[in-house]
């Protein structure tokens, strides 16, 4: 069976080794056009968190070194999806040049009222507007009080 084409090339970043291996397995099984990196995206610094199930979430003593999206080379970038369990602002900081260059549409899941505000202000400063607010879940975890899916578009 040949490689399936869905009209898009996907580049995925996954920091946890066991989850990354499952991702690789699914890419092979589905003959998907996906390039996967076993790294955490952020601002290039270490992040502190903890492994909870198949996620690495903010708030913990474990440290992971991050890479910046700006350190990767792309021919184009149409859509950027960020779902990083409390590290949203760090990822945006490490992607500033890439976002400014390509002006992709951005889907971001923020995990607190404070993170939503930081991410919103950052994206507004880069010429984006909030296009749609999706699903919101009230949470009761420290630092993760409101999980919201947000859709941003560049102002043209």
Q: What can you tell me about this protein's structure?
A:
The model has no long low-confidence stretch (mean pLDDT 90). With 156 residues, the chain is α/β, with parallel strands linked by helices. It is globular, with a radius of gyration of 16 Å. The strands form 3 sheets. A 4-stranded mixed beta sheet has the order 3-6-4-5, with no helix packed on it. The protein folds into 2 domains: 1-38, no CATH class; 40-154, Vaccinia Virus protein VP39 (Rossmann fold), CATH 3.40.50. It contains 4 helices and 10 strands. 26% of the residues lie in helices and 40% in strands. Residues 7-114 form the Methyltransferase FkbM domain. This is Methyltransferase FkbM domain-containing protein.
Q: Approximately how much beta-strand content do the residues carry?
A: 35-45%
Question: What is the helix tally?
Answer: 4
Unreliable spans? none
Tell me, briefly, the overall form: globular
Helix content, binned percent: 25-40%
Mean pLDDT: 90
**Terminal-residue CA separation:** 42 Å
Q: What is the C-level CATH assignment of the largest domain? A: Alpha Beta
């Amino acid at each position: 069976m040949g490689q399936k084409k869905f009209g898009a090339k996907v580049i995925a970043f996954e920091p946890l080794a066991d989850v990354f291996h499952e991702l690789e397995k699914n890419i092979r099984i589905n003959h998907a056009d996906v390039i996967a990196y076993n790294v955490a995206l952020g601002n290039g610094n270490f992040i502190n968190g903890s492994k909870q199930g198949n996620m690495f979430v903010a708030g913990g003593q474990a440290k992971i070194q991050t890479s910046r999206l700006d350190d990767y080379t792309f021919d184009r970038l149409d859509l950027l999806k960020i779902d990083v369990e409390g590290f949203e602002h760090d990822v945006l900081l490490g992607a500033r040049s890439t976002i400014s260059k390509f002006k992709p549409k951005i889907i971001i899941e923020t995990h607190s009222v404070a993170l939503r505000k930081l991410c919103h202000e950052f994206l507004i400063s880069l010429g984006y507007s909030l296009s749609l607010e999706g699903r919101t879940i009230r949470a009761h975890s420290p630092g993760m009080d409101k999980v919201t899916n947000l859709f941003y578009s560049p102002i043209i």
